[in-house]
Design goal:
The protein has 195 residues and is an all-alpha fold. 73% of the residues lie in helices and 0% in strands. The protein has a domain at 59-193: Orthogonal Bundle (Tetracycline Repressor, domain 2), CATH 1.10.357.
């Protein structure tokens, strides 16, 4: 059972998030968490029960924060559906670029263990359902005829450059860490699919 949060527990969570970002989820140990947070190893078990529970809590915290910006863009009343889609894809990609280790941490279970029963997978699917609801009135360009497939293709097209923003730099001289490159890329994608 998880104990009431204290400044020590909060420090442990924040340290875990930092270490996931820096080292990758598979290299985080209770020893390096305790050492970085300047607490003893027993504190991790006292507050969280286990390293696994602590990692789950740290990922849930980051997921809450990661979902906030894309969700806010979808709720903006001053944007038309095409602008909402653009803002959502940009926020999604920018978040992955800003926090690649955390993003990879969220994808670790589905990618490495074929485990699709995670909080990330559930929330991600809820988010893309919300995207579909907000843009359902957009008219697809031929040969595209299925909105769900188009959304999968769009999100897939921003995920890899989001996680690995310099992967295509040598090939195309395109560095997705630059906001203007992301905007142009996303604009081309959206214009490919929608009128």
């Amino acid at each position: 059972m998880q104990k009431k949060k204290t400044p020590t527990a909060e420090k442990i969570i924040l340290t875990t998030i930092d270490l996931i970002e820096e080292k990758g989820i598979q290299k985080v140990t209770t020893r390096n968490i305790a050492q970085r947070a300047k607490v003893n190893l027993a504190s991790i078990n006292y507050y969280f029960g286990s390293k696994e529970q602590l990692i789950k809590l740290a990922l849930k915290r980051t997921l809450d924060e990661m979902n906030q910006m894309p969700a806010e863009t979808l709720g903006r009343e001053d944007l038309n559906p095409k602008e909402k889609l653009h803002a959502f894809l940009e926020a999604f990609m920018a978040g992955a670029i800003k926090w690649p280790g955390i993003t990879k941490g969220h994808l670790y279970e589905p990618f490495m263990n074929n485990n699709y029963n995670t909080i990330f997978v559930r929330r991600f699917n809820n988010l893309i359902n919300e995207v579909m609801e907000k843009i359902k009135d957009l008219k697809l360009k031929p040969p595209h005829s299925d909105l769900k497939l188009s959304i999968i293709q769009l999100i897939s097209a921003v995920t890899i450059p989001g996680i690995l923003p310099k992967l295509f730099k040598h090939f195309s001289n395109c560095d997705f860490t630059l906001q203007e490159k992301r905007k142009a890329y996303i604009n081309d994608l959206i214009n490919h699919y929608f009128e």
